[in-house]
Amino acid sequence: KSDSDTYSCDIGDAQSRAKLVVQEAPVLFKRELQNEEAKEGKQIKLTCELSKPGTPVKWMKGDTVLYASEKYEFKQHGTVAELIIQDVQSVDA
């Protein structure tokens, strides 16, 4: 996308210009979240893989957006996004 701009070819007395518009490829899931089971009090990690590195990820529980806290930790390494839930309880299901 950052390559979108006007380009020119200059031969001294003449110049030719063209505008390049780059359409971003959609971000897709290469590997989706998998169902997990955990024992109460343990830590669980949910992982998904995206088709494009550095894509912002929003984690949700039902309709509620999750925010980083002592309970929830977010990590992202290239195309892999992780949600780590500390001290899982039955209400986390």
From TrEMBL:
Signal peptide: none annotated. Keywords: Cytoplasm, Disulfide bond, Phosphoprotein. Residues 26-93 form the Ig-like domain. Its main location: cytoplasm. The keyword Disulfide bond applies. GO terms for cellular component: cytoplasm. Gene3D superfamilies: Immunoglobulins (2.60.40.10). It is found in: Cytoplasm. This is OBSCN protein. It comes from Ceyx cyanopectus.
